[in-house]
Write a structure and sequence with these properties.
This protein has about 350 residues and is mostly beta strands. The protein has one helix and 30 strands. It has one domain: Neuraminidase (6 Propeller). A four-stranded antiparallel sheet has the order 3-30-29-28, with no helix packed on it. Strand 18 and strand 19 form a beta hairpin. The protein is globular. The termini are far apart.
Length: about 350
């Protein structure tokens, strides 16, 4: 039986009224030269996000670490969606998966009309832009698809019978996915841009999220608190970190590997080449959906904030607050970065952007 989080997600139909909203919307001993990490997290079951916030923006809200001017309200690019479940961006377009009714859509980064990229999908989840293609997973249909960014024919493959991919990370010459099968046992999969299957790493315990940096692959196994490390082009399966109970979303850039522990309200960091782990930020409200750009780390919180931590100095800033970003089933990447903007989806069906 697949993870209850993912299975329930593929079946949920989200409905709302003007008065109420109910919605569903990567782990510590370094391989090679590393030490075990402390488990600073609680033993609560991972993957349950709760406590939706009021959808109205709070323009003057600021993070406790932020001494800057009041917040600038985000730009709403589109709204009215039912069950948003993943996001990817280019410098001009935003791509979003909508589990219900099962489609992938696109909208200009400047805002405007919404176009359908693909319809009739069972439960689209993770998306990624890699090469000249948009890729997405259909968890319900156990497929991976691609379409040229410029438009054209959609290509679909069924990678591993019984293993449903749900999250994607782009690499320079391939995509890497994590998939889940019976008994919450999953795998990390690799595909070249033409969707030819490459090496995979099997036997993963409830994999949650995946990130790629150069030739290294990192993933979280939320059931065991392990962060795995592999290599593009082979089936390497090393332990980057362990004893990181409740690890979920993951991101990586030249400054390190970052992962969220939502039940302990913590984001953790470790150097890419080995070294001690540390808490990057604490007292965060169930952080999730991490993204890094070489200068800063960005994330969402369940109390409706978009947060940033700069690599130089580690200053924490709230970029937006008061938006519904509490995803009940958090196998979702709900935030993406362009060179100028943070773009994210909300549980009440909006696509928003704010300056970095």
């Amino acid at each position: 039986m697949r993870s209850r989080r993912l299975l329930s997600r593929s079946l949920v139909l989200v409905m709302w009224s003007a008065a109420a909203i109910t919605s569903a919307v990567a782990c510590g001993s370094f391989s090679g030269a590393a030490a075990d990490g402390d488990d600073a997290g609680a033993d609560a079951a991972p993957g349950v996000e709760g406590g939706l916030t009021d959808g109205a923006p709070t323009p003057d809200a600021r993070g406790v670490d932020d001494a800057s001017a009041p917040l600038v309200p985000p730009v709403e690019l589109a709204s009215g969606f039912v069950d948003l479940s993943g996001i990817a961006v280019t410098e001009s377009m935003v791509y979003v998966a909508e589990r219900t009714p099962g489609r992938v859509i696109e909208v200009s980064l400047a805002g405007g009309s919404v176009s359908q990229v693909a319809g009739g999908a069972g439960s689209p989840t993770g998306l990624a832009v890699a090469g000249t293609y948009l890729f997405w997973c259909d968890f319900g249909g156990e497929t991976i698809s691609r379409r040229p960014l410029a438009g054209g024919q959609i290509t679909t493959v069924h990678p591993t019978p019984g293993k449903a991919s749900f999250q994607i990370a782009p690499a320079s010459d391939r995509i890497v996915t994590v998939a889940l099968g019976a008994g919450d046992i999953g795998e990390a999969q690799q595909f070249t841009f033409d969707l030819t299957s490459g090496p995979s790493v099997g036997g993963l315990s409830n994999p949650y999220d995946v990130a790629v940096l150069g030739g290294n692959i990192y993933w979280t196994e939320s059931s065991t608190g392990r962060i795995g490390q592999g290599k593009t082009g082979d089936g390497t399966n090393l332990t980057f970190a362990q004893k990181e109970t409740d690890c979920e979303s993951i991101a990586a850039d030249s400054s390190g590997v970052f992962w969220a522990k939502p039940q302990s309200s913590t984001i953790r960091q470790a150097a890419v080449g080995g070294g001690g782990m540390r808490d990057l930020s604490t007292a965060e409200s169930k952080p999730h959906s991490l993204a890094a750009d070489g200068l800063s780390l960005y994330w969402l919180t369940s109390d409706g904030k978009v947060r940033r931590s700069t690599h130089a100095g580690g200053a924490k800033t709230t970029l937006a607050a008061g938006y519904q970003t509490s995803f009940i089933d958090a196998h979702v990447q709900a935030l993406a970065l362009t060179s100028q903007y943070v773009v994210w989806i909300t549980t009440d069906g909006r696509i928003l952007r704010v300056d970095k």
